[in-house]
Amino acid sequence: MSKTATLSTRPVSSNETVLRDKFAESLVGQSELMDKLGQQLITLELAIPGLYATVLKLTQGENATLALNWWLYSAFGCWFLALLLTLWSLVPQRWQVDPTILKQDPAAQGAPLGLEDFFFKSAQFKRRLLIPAALLFWVGILCAARLVL
Question: Terminus of the chain with fewer CB atoms < 10 Å: N or C?
Answer without folding.
Answer: N
